[in-house]
Amino acid sequence: MKILYFAWVRQKVGLAEEDVAPPDSVGDVAGLVAWLAGRSPGHAAAFADPRQVRAAVNQDFATPDQKVAAGDEVAFFPPVTGG
Amino acid sequence: MKILYFAWVRQKVGLAEEDVAPPDSVGDVAGLVAWLAGRSPGHAAAFADPRQVRAAVNQDFATPDQKVAAGDEVAFFPPVTGG
Amino acid sequence: MPTIRVQEAPFDLGAESAALTAGRTDIGGLASFVGLCRADDGLAALVLEHYPGMTERALKKIADEAWARWPLTGCTVIHRVGRLVPGEPIVLVLTASAHRAAALEACAFLIDWLKTSAPFWKREEFAGGESRWVEAKATDDAAAARWAKPA
Amino acid sequence: MPTIRVQEAPFDLGAESAALTAGRTDIGGLASFVGLCRADDGLAALVLEHYPGMTERALKKIADEAWARWPLTGCTVIHRVGRLVPGEPIVLVLTASAHRAAALEACAFLIDWLKTSAPFWKREEFAGGESRWVEAKATDDAAAARWAKPA
């Protein structure tokens, strides 16, 4: 599973992207967040308040209950500020 | 008093402008319209339905009860269609 | 202060936008509207007539009202007159502001209001030689009326 | 079909407008919005980050929705990324239609929706070397929400 980070989520994690293989117990975005938060102090800081972090699965905005599986591209980022 | 005509009002009257000296009994736009309508068949045709004609006195939109006097510039035209 | 022009010559949207923003760093949004001549029903040309003097006064009055109602940093209104063929631009409204809502609203206000309150008259010329004056539209009055301030 | 671009290079409002209208006689109104970088509070630069792939998809989805909701004859959305200094243009929305209301409404819809639904993130750099990520605004959510269709 390919994970991408953007903006301050990227800065806190310290990585723009990484390939991960979460255990089978990780089945949705919320579960993935909890699992990623345990990978490093940077990850923990990025996901300290999950309400501040938005997600996309395979380049579509996703809610915490969205299913994730091996092969997916999952991105985490702050609320968008374009325009 | 200087009278200006625009668009189809001008075409029906057959003049773009004229100088007129209405009698003292003509005191407002409505009175002026009634008096002008008697000047020629073209004037009569232009003012046949006064509701179709708009007026301006000294370059400000005017209502039928607007006062007019010697020295004023009075214009008659259809509802505007700019933009 | 708004810029108002009534002219036969075409206008250049890019140049007019650049003129409003050149050297400035306080503009967050620039909205524009360009009205163009359509070739509806075999239209060959539009001939636009105006009331020299009053037309410029009316445009200035409308632009001054937009300037007073929204916090604009720039406003340009250019309206062409004379004979225009399909595809040619007729009118330009350009508004700049620190924030996008003010620029967008003032731009919509100006074009709606121009349609009903600026002394211009359009005559349509058709390929067959026929010609007719465009009639004012009730929908334009309604569009302008939505900007009336509550009493 | 809408034209979507995400690029570092500046864009040219005049050229993009000309591209939408060239050779056409069915366009009555062309509306545009340009968002620019303001020098608020000693801002030295905005750095815009995006999500390559998803950002283009999101822009296309928003533009396709505008295309479906209004009878547009042309629609261009260009959003810049990278480092922009105050006074530089950030985003362009351009909409063309036979009638002005459709062009104006679609343009406002697109810029409101871009603010809340397109994956871009802005970091502000200040003269003193300080830097901070721009936070999303509740007012932007409200502006986008007014375009939600009734259920």
Give an overview in words.
- Chain A has helices at 7-13, 29-37, 41-46; strands at 2-5, 17-19, 54-57, 60-62, 73-77.
- Chain A is α+β, with helices and mostly antiparallel strands.
- Chain A has one domain (2-77): Roll (Ubiquitin-like (UB roll)).
- The radius of gyration of chain C is 16 Å and the shape is globular.
- Chain C has helices at residues 13-21, 54-69, 100-117, 138-145, and strands at 3-7, 29-36, 43-50, 72-80, 82-84, 89-97, 120-126, 131-133.
- A four-stranded mixed β-sheet of chain C has the order 1-4-6-2, with helices on both faces. Chain C has a four-stranded antiparallel β-sheet with strand order 5-3-7-8, with no helix packed on it.
- In chain C, a hairpin with a 4-residue loop joins strand 7 (120-126) and strand 8 (131-133).
- The interface between A and D is medium-sized, with 16 and 27 residues.
- Chains A, B: Belongs to the MoaD family.
- Chains A, B: This is Molybdopterin synthase sulfur carrier subunit.
- Chains A, B: InterPro entries: Beta-grasp_dom_sf (IPR012675), MOCS2A (IPR044672), Mopterin_synth/thiamin_S_b (IPR016155), ThiS/MoaD-like (IPR003749).
- Chains A, B: Keywords: Nucleotide-binding.
In short:
Chains C, D: Pfam families: MoaE (PF02391). Chain A has helices at residues 7-13, 29-37, 41-46, and strands at residues 2-5, 17-19, 54-57, 60-62, 73-77.
Strand and helix layout:
The complex is a heterotetramer, with two copies of chain A (83 residues) and two copies of chain C (151 residues).
Chain A: E1 2-5, H1 7-13, E2 17-19, H2 29-37, H3 41-46, E3 54-57, E4 60-62, E5 73-77
Parallel strand pairs in A: 1-5
Antiparallel strand pairs in A: 1-2, 3-4, 3-5
Chain C: E1 3-7, H1 13-21, E2 29-36, E3 43-50, H2 54-69, E4 72-80, E5 82-84, E6 89-97, H3 100-117, E7 120-126, E8 131-133, H4 138-145
Parallel strand pairs in C: 1-4
Antiparallel strand pairs in C: 2-6, 3-5, 3-7, 4-6, 7-8
